[in-house]
Amino acid sequence: MDRIGESCPNSGRKLHGGAATVTLLPVFIDPELTERIVASTGLSPAEAARVIEDVLAFHAENVDDYVRRRHAHLKTYGAKNDEIFARIAAELADRLVAAPALTERQLRRLVYG
Predict the structure, then answer these.
(1) Quick one: 74 exposed, middle or buried, by C-beta within 10 A (0-12, 13-18, 19+)?
(2) Using CA atoms, how far apart are residues 104 and 110, in angstroms rounded to an integer?
(3) What is the pLDDT of residues 71-81, one digit of tens each?
(4) Where do the structural domains in the chain lie, given as residue ranges?
(5) What's the pTM?
């Protein structure tokens, strides 16, 4: 299933910045998880499955795209690079799918090439 630039329900932002393309292999969605989402939210089973797929697509963003997107976002709000790179490094450590540990130099190279 291709997920290209789909909108996130959170204020319509794109799930994958710019022209980035993420191809997800068909994923087995645990029926118990779907039932739990249905029970706790009142969504239909189809809506719950879509929410689960959207969450999986959001977390499928690769490290390079994540770093570039977060850097641009934080820069937009006036943050300075030293603060930005420290924050991104901390965020990467807590990502659902752990990213490799990156040095500040590696983070800078992802942003500036």
Answers:
(1) middle
(2) 10
(3) 999 999 999 99
(4) 2-59, 63-112
(5) 0.56
